[in-house]
C-alpha cells in the first residue's frame, strides 16, 4: 500500500482523483493540501465526500509530504509545480504534475504561450510526458511526469498512428474539438463557464490561439519525426463533462478505411483504455464519461482525399485525473488499470 498526497485539493480534477483513489486497492490518501481551505475538512470543499472521507486540508509542507507520501499529485495553477518539484523529488517523492509546467520541453515556448518564465529549465528536460499509451516504459522509470492536457490527450491519441507511420502531410492537419464546461474549472469565468453563457449554447474560444496547440504539435512532431503544424479550434459545448475531437488529415498516399482501422487496432492492441470502432461507427461523449477510455473512429474520404478521425474522452478522467492515476500505477509498478473506472477490455 502506497501513501499518496494531493497538492491543490480543491480543484475539480483533484475531486476526481480522490474518487478514484478511494477505490484503489493499493493506494491510500495521506496528505491533502489547499492554500485556500486549510483547516477545513475535505468534505467541506468536495461535498460528495461527507461521511466518506474526513481528512483535514493543510497548508503546504514539504516536510510533511516527504515524510508521509511516496507520490504526490500537483493540481495547481501554472508556474507552481516548477517551483516545488525539485525538492520533493530529491527527497524521494515521485511527482505527477497536472499543470502545463513540464509538458513543453522548450522553456521559451512555455514563456511565449503562458506568459511566464519557467522556474526550472533543467528539470523541464527530465520530465516524462505522461501519455501512457505512447510512453509507458519511460513513465515506469520516471520521477516526474507531466500529465497531458485534456485536448491534447484526445487529439494525440487520435492522430498518433498516422504520424508514426508517415501516412499524412504534417502541415495539413485541422482539429475541431468540443469540451464540456468543466474543462474551464471551478473558478467563474464570464463568457465561458457561467450557466447563462453555456446553457443551450455552443461557441468557439481561443480560435487558433489555444495554449494546448504547442503541446499537441510538439508530441506529434516527436511521433512523426518531422515538424507538425496544425490549426486547432476548441469549442465549449453545453455538457458538464466530455471532449469530442474531430481531426481532418491529408494522406500522402492512397489508403482505405479498412487498412486504417486495422492499423489503429494493431497500434493500440495492448492499450486497455483505447477502443477503436468498426467501419461506419463513431464515438460519442456519453459512452466515455466517467471512464478512462479514449474511443476512436476513423473515416476515409477518397473524394476529397481526407482522413477523418473522431475521438472522445472524459476531460476530467482520461483527460486529467484518470490518466494521472494511470501514470501513478505505472510509476509504482502496478497494473496500469488498477482502481480505474472501466479498466480492462474483455
Automatic annotation (TrEMBL):
Pathways involved: Amino-acid biosynthesis; L-arginine biosynthesis; N(2)-acetyl-L-ornithine from L-glutamate: step 3/4
Function: Catalyzes the NADPH-dependent reduction of N-acetyl-5-glutamyl phosphate to yield N-acetyl-L-glutamate 5-semialdehyde.
Catalytic reactions on record: N-acetyl-L-glutamate 5-semialdehyde + phosphate + NADP(+) = N-acetyl-L-glutamyl 5-phosphate + NADPH + H(+)
Pfam family, one: Semialdhyde_dh
InterPro entries hit by this protein: AGPR, AGPR_AS, AGPR_dimerisation_dom, AGPR_type-1, NAD(P)-bd_dom_sf, Semialdehyde_DH_NAD-bd
Residues the record marks as active site: 150
Coiled-coil regions listed in the entry: none
Keyword line: Amino-acid biosynthesis, Arginine biosynthesis, Cytoplasm, NADP, Oxidoreductase
EC number: 1.2.1.38
GO cellular component, one term: cytoplasm
Organism whose genome encodes this protein: Candidatus Schekmanbacteria bacterium GWA2_38_11
Protein name: N-acetyl-gamma-glutamyl-phosphate reductase
Homology family: Belongs to the NAGSA dehydrogenase family. Type 1 subfamily.
Localization annotation: Cytoplasm
Occurrences of domain Semialdehyde dehydrogenase NAD-binding (ranges): 3-142
Any one of the GO BP annotations: L-arginine biosynthetic process
GO MF: N-acetyl-gamma-glutamyl-phosphate reductase activity; NAD binding; NADP+ binding
HAMAP family reported for this sequence: ArgC_type1 (MF_00150)
PROSITE patterns with a match to the protein in the record: ARGC (PS01224)
Amino acid at each position: 500500500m502506497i501513501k499518496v498526497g494531493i497538492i491543490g485539493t480543491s480543484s475539480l480534477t483533484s475531486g476526481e482523483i480522490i474518487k478514484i483513489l478511494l477505490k484503489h486497492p493499493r493506494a491510500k490518501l495521506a496528505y491533502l493540501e489547499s492554500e485556500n481551505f486549510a483547516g477545513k475538512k475535505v468534505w467541506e470543499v468536495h461535498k460528495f465526500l461527507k461521511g466518506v472521507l474526513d481528512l483535514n486540508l493543510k497548508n503546504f509542507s514539504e516536510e510533511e509530504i516527504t515524510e508521509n507520501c511516496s507520490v504526490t499529485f500537483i493540481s495547481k495553477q501554472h508556474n507552481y509545480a516548477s517551483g516545488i518539484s525539485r525538492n520533493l523529488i530529491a527527497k524521494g517523492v515521485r511527482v505527477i504534475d497536472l499543470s502545463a509546467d513540464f509538458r513543453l520541453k522548450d522553456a521559451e515556448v512555455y514563456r511565449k504561450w503562458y506568459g511566464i518564465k519557467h522556474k526550472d529549465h533543467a528539470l523541464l528536460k527530465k520530465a516524462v510526458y505522461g501519455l501512457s499509451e505512447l510512453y509507458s516504459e519511460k513513465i515506469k522509470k520516471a520521477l516526474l511526469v507531466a500529465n497531458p492536457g485534456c485536448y491534447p490527450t484526445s487529439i494525440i491519441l487520435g492522430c498518433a498512428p498516422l504520424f508514426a507511420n508517415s501516412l499524412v502531410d504534417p502541415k495539413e492537419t485541422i482539429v475541431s474539438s468540443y469540451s464540456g464546461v468543466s474543462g474551464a474549472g471551478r473558478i467563474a469565468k464570464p463568457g465561458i463557464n457561467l450557466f447563462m453563457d453555456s446553457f443551450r449554447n455552443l461557441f468557439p474560444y481561443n480560435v487558433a490561439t489555444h495554449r494546448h496547440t504547442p503541446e499537441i504539435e510538439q508530441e506529434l512532431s516527436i511521433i512523426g519525426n518531422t515538424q507538425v503544424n496544425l490549426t486547432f479550434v476548441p469549442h465549449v459545448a453545453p455538457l458538464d463533462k466530455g471532449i469530442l475531437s474531430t481531426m481532418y488529415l491529408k494522406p500522402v498516399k492512397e489508403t482505405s478505411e479498412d487498412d486504417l482501422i486495422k492499423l489503429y487496432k494493431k497500434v493500440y492492441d495492448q492499450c486497455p483504455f483505447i477502443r477503436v470502432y468498426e467501419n461506419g461507427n463513431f464515438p460519442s461523449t456519453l459512452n466515455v464519461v466517467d471512464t478512462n477510455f479514449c474511443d476512436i473512429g476513423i473515416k476515409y474520404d477518397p473524394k476529397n482525399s481526407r482522413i477523418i478521425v473522431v475521438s472522445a474522452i472524459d476531460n476530467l478522467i482520461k483527460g486529467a485525473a484518470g490518466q494521472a492515476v494511470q501514470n501513478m500505477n505505472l510509476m509504482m509498478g502496478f497494473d496500469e488499470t488498477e482502481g480505474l473506472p472501466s479498466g480492462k477490455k474483455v
